[in-house]
Amino acid sequence: MTSVKEQEAIKKLMVFLQEWDNARRVARNHILDNFIRSNNGKTEPELELEFSQGASLFLARLAAWLRLTYMHSTCISKLLKSIGVFLSAASGRRYVIEFLELGGVLMLLEILGLNHLKEEDKKEAVKLLQLIADAGRKYKELICESYGVQSLAKLLATSSSAEVQDEVQILLDSLGRGNPKYQNQVYSGLLAVLPCGSPHGQQLALQTLRSMQVSGGFAPLPIGSQRVALHAAAPQPALVPQDVLGEAPPAVVTPLLAVLGSAHPAVHYEAVQLLLTLVSRRAPPALLPGLVALLTAPGTEPRAEDPALCPTEQTPAHIQQAAAAKAVGILAKESAEVAEELIQLKVVHGLMVAVGNLDYPLSQRNASISLEYFVRTYPFVEECVRKAVGHTLFQLFKDCPETWYTKIDRVQAEELASNLVDSPEDMA
């Protein structure tokens, strides 16, 4: 038999629920404001005490109203924050389960794809998904099974809000850890973001890829597999033997090298950091050859016209060339083994071609600085370069590699662009 105090508490709860049920949109807004202000940060026992052991009844009403209104943009942000009070409550795993049983994950993922909703609404939805993912591995798997990676990758690539993109990165990073069944899918989804038009999205995707690579907790994508398409069904997870965990997937090469064509320094920095990480952890065989090939890729050849008469155009091929010239120098300084492999891949020839590109001074400068390291470190490279450019030009190079390119005229540039310094005879 309940005490008088308990009866009063239950009566108070019933009055509150009845008030909610009868309230219209404006009144419900006020109720949500008061609820968030009074209960944010409370634990599960404290919420149950506040609601006379009936907090789940209010959570169910919040979920039901969300289901009815999220398509029409009615108080979505406040509603999601109110649900977050329950999902973030310490010892409140039961609330997470109850919300999931009401279809919570699917509702949140649908919110992410609605163009008419505000970015603030989507940010709150991502935060709720973070809380669900933090509840454990099976909850991460549920998000992935619901095509969550595809939705999140698309949002990261297309959102106009840096705050939303930051929250998405936190969630993708969480889904990429302690979730072996779907880590390949997360990695693939991040690769799908790299060709997008959002520099901040590219930067965050590169950061998360490197984080996953460092953790070594993912299996490489099967050879020939493609990244997750932003507008297609997500791939099914594949089980891979444990002895290949941590090996970089071949699918990373093309999008990573392509992102070097970005005009944004922050993207370049993250791309180079990922390159360093991949090279230190069994890089795909095509990575270093592809990087060296950017030094002489089509579109980087200097024009025959006088550059003083033709304004320099900053093309993606030129930007890639400059970024590759800088990257090979960084990689070589990090590892003598990598430096020797780059030499075998004719990197010296590629760097000299880049130095001769009068159409893009940044390529010339970056290539000069990287070439100076190879010349200083390997005597046989120094001798080959000396023979290729002649004593006078070589001495200018030795005196100041950073400004060497400013001393090169059109004829010398053409000689550099056509050098054969890495021919088999020279290496012999």
How would you characterize the overall build of this protein?
- The structure is a single chain.
- The chain has 24 helices and no strands.
- The C terminus is likely disordered.
- It has 428 residues and is mainly alpha-helical.
- Helix 10 runs antiparallel to helix 11 and helix 21 packs across helix 22.
- 65% of the residues lie in helices and 0% in strands.
- The longest helix is centred in the first third of the chain and has 19 residues.
Could you list some keywords that capture this structure?
disordered C terminus, 65% helix, single chain, mainly alpha, 24 helices, 428 residues
How many E-type strands? 0
> SSE string, helix = H, strand = E?
HHHHHHHHHHHHHHHHHHHHHHHH
Query: Strand fraction band?
Result: under 5%
How can the largest sheet be summarized?
A: none
Q: End-to-end distance, in Å?
A: 97 Å
Q: Uncertain runs with pLDDT below 50, 5 residues or more?
A: 218-227, 231-245, 423-428
InterPro entries: ARM-like, ARM-type_fold, DUF5578
Pfam families: DUF5578 (PF17741)
Protein name: Armadillo like helical domain containing 1
